[in-house]
TrEMBL record:
It comes from Arthrobotrys musiformis. Residues 1-129 form the Thioredoxin domain. The gene is TRX2_2. InterPro entries: Thioredoxin-like_sf, Thioredoxin_CS, Thioredoxin_domain, Thioredoxin_H-type-like. Coiled coil: none annotated. It holds the Pfam family Thioredoxin. Gene3D superfamilies: Glutaredoxin (3.40.30.10). This is Cytoplasmic thioredoxin isoenzyme 2. The lineage of its organism: Eukaryota, Fungi, Dikarya, Ascomycota, Pezizomycotina. It comes from the Eukaryota.
Length: 129
């Protein structure tokens, strides 16, 4: 028995099936325009602010990918943002430490999880699906 594939509107105007991705359903925002496009989607969007040098971020990367795959059929959109590659994103979104997970729906922030507590992140996602 497979999961039904949910169609998620991609911020660049294409429809994509998140479960059709071979390894992960985590997208990457590489600039502020893409980041804003993701946050304005009507779906639950979980932004993972991360950095390559961050040990706790590495711990959470795989756990975040698993959650993205598990909740893709609920039309959750998972996005990773490397704070060193997207200038000013941390100031604009109020991120003071990594990893920080911001949950958005329709352009409105609905929740925030700071740190590498995967249980808290999972519970917060489930509360907002």
């Amino acid at each position: 028995m497979g999961h039904p594939e949910a169609n998620v509107e991609h911020p660049m105007g294409q429809n994509q099936s998140p479960l059709s991705c071979a390894l992960s359903t985590v997208s990457e925002a590489t600039n502020l325009e893409e980041l804003r496009s993701f946050t304005n989607l009507p779906n639950l969007v979980v932004l993972n602010f991360t950095a390559l040098w961050c040990g706790p971020c590495k711990f959470m990367k795989d756990k975040f990918a698993v959650m993205a795959n598990q909740y893709a059929d609920h039309s959750m959109v998972a996005v990773q943002i490397d704070i060193d590659k997207v200038p000013r994103c941390n100031q604009i979104y109020g991120v003071r430490t990594v990893p920080t997970f911001l949950l958005y729906r329709g352009g409105v922030k609905v929740a925030e999880v700071v740190g590498s507590n995967d249980g808290l992140l999972r519970a917060t996602i489930l509360q907002n699906l």
